[in-house]
């Protein structure tokens, strides 16, 4: 059942829950990119853009589900640890809470900015509490494009989190992002692959928590 324009459907929230329980990797050419510290990252080529979609599965042993969900939603805290944030805030537009986010890019590339919807729901699945967060790009006249900054118009992410039965979290994340501009797709994908190699060598799962909270980390 679809909701009003700009919202997420009930089905979309439950689809994320279902994938947390049983990864949906069959029937498509999903490739295992990297495994590190209990986290597996898969990718699938989007033939229209030449970029990759990503799915992440695994367990974070030292972070509770509620804390992880709260970290993801806390824009003010993100400004403290994410050095690439130029500007980040929420604004009410047409009855929706919209996130504006400008990301610093290295010279001579232009910064990118995002305008996206984000919703969190805490669901009960047969007595198990599952936190689900959905996000996708949108367009709002109140948050028009800025001179010198490239607007990211294709961005989608879903995150589902539940207890691992101990002190940690079992997680699923889907992510796709097209930064646009004149960056060749091969260069973006190369950077994503090398970033994942760095994650393979990371032993501190707090770094992986930041990785899950940062949609831009795969660029």
UniProtKB/TrEMBL annotation:
Its main location: cytoplasm. One of its GO terms (biological process) is lipid transport. PROSITE patterns: START. Residues 1-189 form the START domain. It is found in: Cytoplasm. One of its GO terms (molecular function) is lipid binding. GO terms for cellular component: cytosol. Keywords: Acetylation, Cytoplasm, Lipid transport, Lipid-binding, Phosphoprotein, Transport. The keyword Cell membrane does not apply. Pfam families: START. Interacts with ACOT13/THEM2. This is Phosphatidylcholine transfer protein. It comes from Homo sapiens.
């Amino acid at each position: 059942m679809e909701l009003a324009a700009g919202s997420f459907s009930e089905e979309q929230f439950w689809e994320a829950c279902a994938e947390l329980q049983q990864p949906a990797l069959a029937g498509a050419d999903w490739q295992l990119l990297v495994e590190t510290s209990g986290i597996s990252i898969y990718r699938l080529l989007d033939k229209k853009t030449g970029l990759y979609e990503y799915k992440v599965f695994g367990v974070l042993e030292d972070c509770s589900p509620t804390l992880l969900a709260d970290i993801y939603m806390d824009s003010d805290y993100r400004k403290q640890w994410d050095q690439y944030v130029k500007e980040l805030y929420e604004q009410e537009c047409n009855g929706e809470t919209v996130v504006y986010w400008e990301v610093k890019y290295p010279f001579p590339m232009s910064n990118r900015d995002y305008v996206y919807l984000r919703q969190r729901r805490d669901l009960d699945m047969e007595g198990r509490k599952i936190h689900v967060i959905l996000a996708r790009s949108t367009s709002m006249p109140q948050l028009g494009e800025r001179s010198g900054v490239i607007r990211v118009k294709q961005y989608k992410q879903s995150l589902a989190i539940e207890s691992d039965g101990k002190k940690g979290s079992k997680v699923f994340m889907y992510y796709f992002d097209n930064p646009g501009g004149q960056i060749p797709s091969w260069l973006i994908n190369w950077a994503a692959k090398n970033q994942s190699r760095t994650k393979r060598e990371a032993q501190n799962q707090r770094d992986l928590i930041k990785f899950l909270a940062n949609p831009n980390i795969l660029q």
